[in-house]
Design a protein that fits this description.
The complex is a heterodimer of chains A (614) and B (338). Chain A is of the alpha/beta class and 614 residues long. Chain A has 3 domains: 219 residues, Pyruvate-ferredoxin Oxidoreductase, domain 3, CATH 3.40.920; 187 residues, Rossmann fold (3-Layer(aba) Sandwich), CATH 3.40.50.970; 108 residues, 3-Layer(aba) Sandwich (Rossmann fold). Chain A has a 7-stranded mixed beta sheet with strand order 11-10-12-13-15-14-21, sandwiched between helices. In chain A, α20 links the parallel β22 and β23. The longest helix of chain A is centred in the middle third of the chain and has 20 residues. The model of chain A has no long low-confidence stretch (mean pLDDT 95). Chain B is globular, with a radius of gyration of 22 Å. The chains are: A alpha/beta (614), B alpha/beta (338). The interface between A and B is large, with 68 and 57 residues.
């Protein structure tokens, strides 16, 4: 390491890399996160990109961003505002200048700030004046020129040269935060194994950026963020989609079942299908269906045959699956449906996050059609809740809807790798082989769960289907009293899952002035906001829900300890309305945001302070 | 699904459920033929899964003493796909109708065939919606008058056989409800064929589309208007076995043996296992009055099946991968110690 004139130690830092959607910003951000993890920082990431693969160059709509928050202590969000912004062109500046902390550093590729690109981004003359950038430390770096210069002897075509300029920006940020280059160099070496000239180019440009930052006066002082005091163990970086896929495989292994996934590609859920398709070594049968309906129906067919059937989707796909989900309710087969929520309705905002599928998940089917609903709340705990969703589906012979969202799906964080013996057993309801006179719909008196017999089992031949069933035999019944009895028992069966789910926890005192209530992917923001106010002495606590249907049994008890309750969610109040039905004795205030973006800690704190003061 | 040697009779496949199709419906005879075919196939009863969609025909699984799944409208093909892929050891039969398979389930129908999943699909074609009480279907002939086409339909119908072959189908057969002998034989062939086997059964709906096939099935005329194809035999038909099919340029042509110098050796010989679908498509598309309607196994070509390929791919990856269990996966790739 070179001697630095001045190094300042920081608790945490937020960096945002942004450029055209073909500029490699997602990779740049990921590499910075990985290097930070390897030197011991905690982190949380937020990839934010357009739905077009190569959106029009130089326009604000085409800007792809990757924000990472690294910390000396645990970090729960990717951060509201950035300390450092890398903007590869004027559009990237335009899209992100508002998300900067006052006094932060903005690194611009000055070569792209010519008249053409400035106009294309929607500026009139000088973006630096128009954005009032004198509030920041603006570093105008001729990134494109210097990248060309650094590798001019390698004989690469212009396109390949320009592709490596993201490494220049990354090199600069590495210098600024005193990070080593070796992890990224190793990555480059393994990624381009067969193309030595590309390895050389990327490494040269990375180093050039690092050296350039060291040379220019404006990049001083530099900063360090010391390793986080996190639990000992082996760690890896994981995003929500990967964690979801792995949790499902883990559950199938515990249950001694093979996993079948039938899915149709849809943003932002596709990563789960891709990850499961890779895992043939663990026996996963992955089926890319011709449509969403085929996805769920093949999964139901596989469950009928005795596998753990899974289908993965997002809001519009869940709408298409709703009839078949009702069939799974009726046939009482284990099934996991994963809904990675995105901005809606209709095609909406495919790459942006939202929590607006809750009512659809709860009630979006014909008839009285109860399913268990679980929501993950961090990228890595998608593993735990996917495991739990599958466990409940298998042990309670019911479809379970696991809700994540675009923010969790693409966001990543370090994850202490568990071992499988830390996870509970999963026992199938497979009928014992020596059973005589098998009745498909005879139930366990406590859980109301039926027994599972699968094709191939001798003497258990039976028929299931979407028509109403006889209470015991499962044969078709149009009897009015039987129908009411069956509607009731399906409802009760799902309600009794409450006996196997953990109690709701309060973060903070169990009594106070304000209880913040949230569910699913907003956890990190709510926790950070509440924790900061607690440190400021406010009587505020957080109750965050992972179990939506049924609700944890102690929810009302917790609500009763607070003067006011505010339900915060990324929709117009769907969970608040659900609580108004389920826990009617309380008054709920709401904080809602529907911008396709996560909350910010700042806006949450402002809202809570208002309520606490009132 | 390979045959085994289990001795069963058709009665072993009858369930205790009361059969609720209309008296005189063609479905009764089809059920009977299926039960006879299963007894001949010699596969253990618990290995059968009968999977259906919605419609009159789709009630059939309730009447079979096997595993059964009465699905939702149009989705039998995909439920059956999941079941077969999950357990290739099962003999999976899809029971569907012209509305279920070709209207609401049209997408799944072609993709099932394209993938060549080893499923036997029995398509009950009565050219009408019976369960919803008489609306036209995708196979109703142009001009058909129904409750939703009071002035006659103005759309062109599908010909299931042509659709099957167009979707790269490897097995297509046709039979008619009241010919139990032919139906049984054809179902047995379908059951033996590895890959998607589609059997179109011309079925009479006594209530909403009675006698829809009478012009080719009536006793007096059927020998002149039907040709029963048998692999390896000349394509001869007629009361006196004196008519046959030849190729005239690019088209099939009906000729009379003994007239205009036509001899029996000039008649085309049926090759169901010919990979080229040209002649099979023409045979499947023959319609009265220009041609006799073809029955029996029209196409029966061997090709790799999806379910076997998937199992093979999994086996191959498992043999070479170092990841044998979840704990291995968790610790694979980039990890670091704290």
């Amino acid at each position: 390491m070179n001697k630095k004139p001045e190094v300042i130690e920081l608790e945490a830092v937020v960096i945002r890399f942004s450029g055209d959607s073909g500029d490699g910003m997602q990779l740049t951000g990921t590499l910075f996160s990985n290097t930070s993890a390897l030197i011991g920082n905690d982190f949380s990431t937020f990839p934010d990109y357009p739905s077009e693969i190569r959106a029009p160059q130089g326009t604000v709509g085409g800007v792809s961003g990757f924000q990472v928050h690294i910390g000396h202590n645990k970090v729960f969000t990717p951060g509201d505002f950035a300390d450092v912004l890398v903007a590869m062109n004027p559009a990237a500046l335009k899209a992100n200048a508002q998300w900067m902390k006052p006094g932060g550093i903005i690194i611009l590729d000055n070569d792209n700030f010519d008249e053409k690109w400035i106009k294309k981004a929607g500026y009139f003359e000088d973006p630096i004046i128009e954005e009032k950038l004198d509030r920041f430390n603006v570093i105008k770096a001729p990134i494109t020129t210097l990248t060309k210069e650094a590798i001019k002897d390698l004989g690469l075509d212009l396109k390949s040269v320009l592709r490596s300029k993201n490494m220049f920006a990354l090199g600069m940020v590495y210098w600024l935060y005193n990070r080593p280059l070796n992890f990224t160099e190793q990555f480059i070496e393994s990624k381009f194994q067969k193309r030595p000239v590309i390895i050389e180019a990327n490494k040269k440009v990375l180093k050039a950026g690092y050296n350039f930052a060291e040379t220019i006066e404006s990049m001083k002082p530099t900063y360090i963020v010391s390793p986080a005091p996190i639990r000992k163990g082996t760690y890896r970086n994981i995003n929500g989609n990967e964690a979801t896929a792995w949790g499902l495989i883990a559950a199938a292994e515990k249950a001694g079942l093979n996993l079948f996934v039938g899915s149709y590609p849809i943003t932002p859920a596709t990563g789960i299908l891709e990850e499961l398709s890779l895992r043939k070594d663990l026996g996963v049968k992955s089926f890319q269906a011709e449509d969403e309906i085929a996805g769920i129906c093949t999964a139901i067919g596989a469950s009928f045959a005795g596998l753990l059937g899974v289908t993965t989707t997002s809001g519009p796909g869940l709408a298409l699956k709703s009839e078949a989900l009702g069939l799974a309710v009726m046939t009482e087969l284990p099934l996991v449906v994963v809904d990675v929520q995105r901005g809606g309705p209709s095609t909406g905002l495919p790459t942006k996050t939202e929590q607006s599928d809750l009512m659809q998940a709860l009630y979006g089917r014909s008839g009285e059609s109860p399913v268990v609903i679980i929501a993950a709340s961090t990228p890595s705990n998608c593993f735990d809740y996917a495991f739990q969703a599958a466990k409940i589906a298998i042990e309670h012979m019911t479809p379970v809807l696991l809700m994540t969202d675009g923010f969790l799906a693409n966001g990543s964080q370090p994850w202490r790798i568990p071992t499988m013996n830390e996870y509970p057993e999963i026992k199938t309801r497979m009928v014992p082989k020596d059973t005589i006179d098998y009745q498909p719909y005879a139930r366990d008196p406590e859980t109301l769960v039926r027994r599972w017999a699968i094709p191939g089992m001798k003497g258990m031949e039976h028929r299931v289907g979407g028509l109403e069933k006889d209470f015991l035999k499962g044969s078709v019944s149009h009897d009015p009293i039987n129908h009411q009895k069956m509607v009731k028992v399906r409802e009760d069966k799902v309600n009794r899952v409450v006996n196997v789910i953990p109690d709701l926890e309060v973060m903070g005192d169990s009594q106070g002035d304000l209880l913040v209530v949230g569910w699913g992917g907003t956890f990190g923001y709510l926790k950070t906001a509440v924790q900061e106010l607690q440190e400021e002495g406010e009587k505020i606590s957080l109750a965050h829900f992972n179990y939506i249907r049924p609700l944890p049994g102690n929810a009302k008890e917790i609500f009763s300890g607070f003067k006011r309750i505010i339900v915060c969610e990324l929709n117009l109040g769907q969970f608040a309305n659900y609580l108004r039905i389920k826990c009617q004795e309380f008054k709920y205030e709401q904080y809602n945001k529907v911008q396709g973006l996560p909350f910010t800690v700042v806006e949450l704190k402002e809202e809570f302070i208002k309520l606490l003061g009132a | 699904m390979k045959e085994q040697n289990i001795k069963l009779t058709f009665k072993d496949f009858k369930s205790d459920q009361e059969i609720r199709w209309c008296p005189g419906c063609g479905d009764h005879a089809i059920l009977n033929s299926i039960q006879r075919a299963l007894a001949e196939l010699g596969i253990a009863r618990e290995k059968y899964a009968f999977i259906s969609g919605i419609g009159c025909s789709s009630r059939l699984p309730y009447y079979m003493n096997t595993y059964g799944f009465h699905g939702i409208h149009g989705r039998a093909a995909v439920i059956a796909t999941g079941t077969k892929v999950a357990n290739p050891d099962l003999s999976v039969w899809e029971i569907t109708g012209d509305g279920d398979a070709l209207a609401i389930g049209g997408n799944h129908f072609i993709h099932l065939i394209r993938r060549n999943i080893d499923i036997n699909l029995i398509l009950f074609n009565n050219e009408i919606y019976g369960l919803t009480k008489g609306q036209y279907s995708p196979t109703s002939r142009k001009g058909t008058t129904t409750k939703t086409s009071p002035f006659g339909t103005i759309e062109t119908p599908f010909h299931p056989g042509v659709l099957v072959i167009g979707a790269q189908g490897k097995f297509f057969a046709r039979t008619v409800d009241n010919n139990i002998k032919l139906s049984t034989d054809v179902f047995v062939e379908a059951g033996k064929h590895e890959g998607t086997s589609v059997v179109e059964v011309l079925q009479n709906c006594v209530i909403y589309n009675d006698k829809v096939y009478a012009e080719i099935t009536d006793k007096e005329v059927k020998e002149e208007r039907q040709i029963i194809l048998k692999h390896g035999e000349p394509m001869i038909f007629g009361k006196s076995n004196d008519k046959g099919l030849i190729l005239d340029g690019l088209k099939l042509k009906v000729v009379k043996i003994g007239e205009k110098g036509v001899k029996e050796k000039d008649i085309l010989v049926h090759k169901a296992n010919e990979n080229n679908p040209g002649i099979h498509t023409m045979l499947a598309n023959m319609r009265w009055p220009n041609y006799p309607v073809a029955f029996g196994v029209i196409r029966n070509v061997t090709a790799p099946t999806y379910d076997v390929a998937m199992a093979g791919q999994i086996q191959k990856v498992q043999n070479s991968s170092k990841i044998k269990k979840m704990d291995d996966l968790l610790r694979s790739g980039n990890t670091w110690e704290v």
